[in-house]
Records
---
Amino acid sequence: MTNHTLSGAQMILECLKREGVDTLFGYPGGSAIPLFDALLDSNIKVVLSRHEQGATHMADGYARATGKVGVVLVTSGPGATNTFTGIYTALMDSSPIVVLTAQTTRPSLGKDAFQECDTSGMTFATVKHSYLVKNSDDLPRVMKEAFHIARTGRPGPVLIDLPKDVMAGPCNAPFTDQLDLPGYKVPTYAPAEAVEKVAALIKKSTKPVLLVGHGAIISGASRQVKELAEKLNAPVTETLLGLGAFPETHPLSLGMLGMHGTAYANKAILECDLIMSIGSRWDDRITGKVEEFCKNATIIHIDIDPAEEGKVLMPDVFLAGDAKLVLEQLLPLVGKLDTDEWVKTVQTYKKRYPLTYPKQGGLRMQHIIATLYEQTQGKAIVTTDVGQHQMWVAQFFKADYPRQFITSGGAGTMGFGFPAAIGAAFGTDSNWPVCCFAGDGGFQMTEAELATASIHKLPIKIFVMDNKYLGMVRQWQDMFYSKRYSSVSMVGNPDFVKLAESYGILGLRIKRPADAERVIQRALAYNEGPVLIHCECEEEDNVFPMIPAGAPLTAMLTEPPKAQLEKPTGST
Amino acid sequence: MIENTAKPIKVAHSLSLLVANRPGVLVRIALVFSRRGYNLDSLVVSPTLNPDFSRMNIVARGNPEILAQIIKQLEKLVDVIQAKDHTGNSTVEKELALIKVRCKPEQRTEILQLCDHFKATTVDMTDTSMVIQITGNTDKIDAMKHLCDKFEIVEYIRTGKVIMLRGEGTT
């Protein structure tokens, strides 16, 4: 190797720099040593996680908070397999991450070498694209393509499997900015005639609803969504991942729809004559029984992924394109609609069926969330884990800004919230506090990352919502399985305050509703490092409204049912 | 190949894919079908005039709405340049089969007559056996195979279907 020739590992790092990467999340191991060695001479910051799943969720949280590509670096074998949950989570929620997995040397491939695994073979179904680099000279091209594919179109995870000798050996190929991907097409604007058709359909509507999803946030279409809603005078509802794309405190906002969405959003969906999805994919948590969903309404679907057309339901018009660009096409073609009556009706629903929770009794998660919302005036980056607390955060923390609400939607990955908050804290340049809500179950899946948060002194507020149950599963067993609780008790939980303290992290406790205000105030004022707030909550609280899985929206329950319900027919 | 569960026979669709010659492309394509429980009847992979690309011809049967979704999902793959369903298009479609039958010398004439009728050829012959080669569309090969059933078929193999659009345009 001459002085001018870079090693494969050095080339990878140079390519990362060219892609604007300054931070990566990882965990070393035998095969990955060449790259970790080269990192010592680079100015890329390495965040050492305590588990590869944590590193992957960190990169995902970083990506969601910033819109930039999150980068993961792990070793071969178990290092790689530990990232799979995170890769799948990123795929389901269209989050751009690049995962570099080290691999055994090329001559050892297929020989069951130590820590060898067929990483690319095992992940074909959960990546947007992947590479196994067999030739060092392919590195500049592969790195260029990987970042392009991860961040453009419908974003997603891209995996690059790197044999150790590819990293250790020389790379003689020059950098490249050229892309030669004839099979990769990124829609931008929708065909003009289709947009005109949509405009004509909208003009006929007197009861429209705009359904805004993650795609609107990814494309940066918030301003256009607001402009369209106000121009048409049309109510707006959001998916779980769309929260923040349109200000929830806006008078036209209906908040989240679907299984645990607001009653007023779901009632509006039942009665609307036109629904236009902007970057959402008709998830089963939204549609319930698809055959009944908006069956008398005109359906318009804007999505950058052409394969979404007709995947769940067939719209009247499908516009393949970038949400922001398509809305810019549409805006000049539409004007105010005759919706005064409709908006009035919807406002009545908002008053008649507000989101509430019982104020008496023990400590409720809703109370903690509402208190944090008040104290931060909604100016916080919030991540959640998965389960009951997640739905309550979606309901009671009114997200007004894109990228402030980060949650695992499609995959519903327990263990996501806390490492995602760490990633968001590394990525964000805002001075808003990063607040993580996690249940006692999910938090324990990735709680080892307390060390990561502690050593970097990240001022994250970690709310462990401890009800000593896997609450959402318990709720289903309560409502649909004759209260036969099976494997949902979390007896054996640690004292989370002591756990935090053992990592050198400030631990606080909320036991009674009256403590919440004071303790949260203290947590928000503390900026020397992370703070964990152990919230000892009501054990058997249930989330409402609820539409049983697979049921039509008319089956919505706004309060606990009097009788046992049939087992749900829909997905999980 | 994916297991053919004995469900009612649905229309067979002839797909043509242009794919990049990249490792893993066949697995990625197979996963799009298998995840949706779709059966593949046959698969042919062939080089094209451009060494960077290959042509795949796939015959698959199942629900047409699912197939429409499968084609979109195939087109979404980075290494798939184009995926088209040529069912109903004017195409030349050919398969090749080899049929090995056990036959005594006195049975040869009848078999050779069959071959003549179907423009099949004998590509191997011993005292006790013959190997017949036949090309044509699916129905023709099925018919020949059916007629050979009265003799003892020792072994039988056929290629997948290759498809080419009629006229000047490319498939």
---
Amino acid sequence: MSLFSRLRHSLHPRRLDEDIAEEARDHMERRKAQWIAEGLEPEEAARRAAVAFGNMTRIQERSREIRLWSAVEGTLQDLRYAVRGMRKSPAFTLTAILSLSLAIGANTAIYSIVEAAILRPLPVPEPGKLFALTSPDVQRAGADTTGERANESFSYPMYQEFRTAAGGSARLGLFTWASVVEVQIPDRSAPIETATRQIVSGDAFEILNVPPAVGRVFSQEDDRTPGGHPVAVISHEYWRRRFHGDAAVVGQRLRLGTGSYVVVGVAREGFTGVEPGKFVDVWLTAAMSGKASLTNAGWSWFRIVGRLAPDATREQIQARLQPVFHTFMEDTVKRNPTMPEGIRKQLREMALRVRPAEQGVSEFRQTFAKPLWIVLAIAAGILLIACANVASLLLARATARSSEMAMRISLGAGRARLVRQLLTENLLLSLVAGAAAWLMARMAAPVLVAMLSSENDPVQFALSMDTRVLLFCAAISTLAAMFFGLLPAWQASGARPMLALRGAQGSAGRLRLGRFFVSVQVAFAFCLVITGAGFLYSLRNLFLVDTGFDSRRVSLIQIADEWPAGESHRRRDFMNQLRTQVAALPGVQGTATAPWGIFENNFWTEQIVLPGKAPSEREELFYRVSPGYFAALRTPLLGGRDFQVGDREDPKTKAAVPTIVNLAFARRYFGAENPVGKTFERPKGSTAIRHEIVGIAGNAKYGDLRSGPEPMIYLPIDGGGSIRLYVRSALDLPSVVSTVEREAKAIAPGVRVRDVTPLETLVGNTILKEKLLAGIGGVFAALGLLLAAIGLFGLLNYSVARRTKEIGIRSALGAGRSSILGLVWKDLFAMLGGGLAAGLAGSIATLTALQTLLFGIRPADPVVLLTATLVFGSAVLLAGTLPALRAAAIDPMIALRHE
Amino acid sequence: MPSPNSTQSALDLLVLTILGRRGPLHGYAIANSIQELSEEALHIEEGSLYPALHRMEETGWIAAEWTITENKRRARMYQITRAGKKQLASETQRWSDYSNGVARVLRLA
């Protein structure tokens, strides 16, 4: 047979079957005719012809096998069957595909983020040779004290020493954090845009081995003279986006901050820096980062990423760099004679770490790696539920098809053949679901990333649904098909033809298997509901934390000005004027200024010295605020007075700085005494600055909702640094901004509003992790609940249908409606029991393991458990009611006649 | 490749021989010829001839075509192909070698 006709046959197997049958029929007709010619009765002739021919069905099967031996044909036929079966039961198909695609979609979406943020190596040659330097974070007061973070920043002098010490065994590159800066193209006459900037050492591109796409990248020559290399390299993505991929970009002028730069080249496509999650637009060289940052060993704001020489190991690098690091730490200790012993000890014993940096360095990863893995695990739980769900649906369906299976078996179909067909159906189901899931993941993943991103700290991933993600998707789908398909398929194909054909409904074993699947669903769903409730309550607890200020309707406005550093008095005067003028406007309840905002991850800590005592063991948190700050934020002043316009820290006079402390500070250093009027000193180099406490404020959170009340010291504003204006107003954000901008321009024409953030958003940004877990945990809990409810409903419904006759007899014998209902409920609770117990145990273990990510939740938290049980219980009742009512409505006459 | 002494191989040889000598035939006629030629020695179910025919057709030794026969009925006619003729020649050779061998063993035993 030609390939063509084989293909034709495989597309039209029915035609082939007819051919084979017709040939056989023809044969028997002829034989029969012969027997008749020999004088037999037609019936007898036909009988003899049939006997001589043999088992017609078996022979036809063999011919079929010969004709259509190719797997292609079999599969095609199975697929046709599968599609036909799907069309015949759309409710089943939709439910199954929906459950599976939601579950696979959730897994794929989260995996794609995990892949981009955690697993994907940097797009450079030999990323396995890259390493990053880190050191343990010093535990200081007021800062994040979870201990999960490592310090990744080093000073420029340290970098230079490291580079020398590493010698030939590694090359070290320098990278700052990527930061959003204002850019004007080509000069200051152009409108202001923003771009992400990173400062790197001249050899950074060479070390990473990133070639230019256009022009050139930096060389060491671009990083020699401080301030002498106004050149920039831009990313391929920025080049495309901003310059439309125009090769004439080389030579383009850019104004970044206060400097003007010339673009010398575009980096290779796909390279966006060493930090996954951040897309760098513009690179500058370290030489351009300001003299102080190049010489001051105390200014640690550079990351160091290096590449090992071919034969070097990370241990060797550590051994070479550690002495240098230790010397620097000793110097730091020596420079700060009053340093608390605790910190001194930490610094002296600190070991430099040389970590692999195949996947780059990432702050995002430090924060979100654990939550992401957890969310992925939750998604896997959903997938298991969905699989069990579909398996029980399939089981119920297999019962409906048992007579079809029996028919085929008695007609000679092999068991393997039937299993193959059933598996094909499952595979088709999961492939369709996989495709739908892929689409869903494509849409959902960017939304998830957006949840973790904020305006000031944008997070962006190249969430390419690439081969790896596709493979992941396909693998999950196939595994799902195997998992949920094999057992029901085996059972269905094991149908005993005689029983089934006689109309005896399914076996008890099948129901047992169904019960098992439902228990699995119940266990996982209950566990998910409890975990989800844990995360939701945890987030609620964070929202309910008494912050000590009222963030509602407060906006934090950043104002850009162009006064040189030496003229801080002008900035201070401007701030005072702006503050009072805006405060006088209608609709504004309060204003205040500060050099930076709270919850902006800016911590200024210093030691303090009480008169006649040793320097404090801890460093305490300092913050500069204007008069009116406490009123504007509604933090109570408990004693003394607020700042006044004349209050200031003047380095020329020796006058004590008027200072306000919070209650926690007062309790720690003055016990029950009233601190107002007391003084303390803050060491500054060899001298000290004297502070006089003039007021005492209530405790207020500064940078973190989780920590308890931390001591805090408020100082009067001095006009240094940048300007943040707090405005409490009932007006909407745009009107606040336009009002402030108008007032500001009226006072000083050169200033403008640069950035506006509601204070609530700033606070919210510190609990993104918790929001992610609560959001996804909550949604997944609901999803798991829904799936489990569907599973329960399906099995109960099936079990009622199976027992129609029994129930009919019972009610014919006088069983009341309530006892029939009780019958179904009993069935339901029998199914729930084991699952609930397992789920409860599992969830307590889960909550224990997740304790560090929860806030105010105990592993066996009664509120969480009670809520979860109530929610779960109502869903289960709902799922059980319909089948129960159906059972109660069974008419005994109809039921008995049914068989 | 079937071993030379299997029933299948024997059946193949018979079919090829018949088609080689008597030209295009339909299945019924082939079945009758087999019974006639082997004098019922090769006892097979008539029906099992068809899978064999289909297999040989797949292998390419014979070709088949639906035709309208003398009494206006559709019948599937089989005829031997060139590959079939070659196969027939080599199989015939093998069979005679084989039976000679067996005969010699029986003689000497």
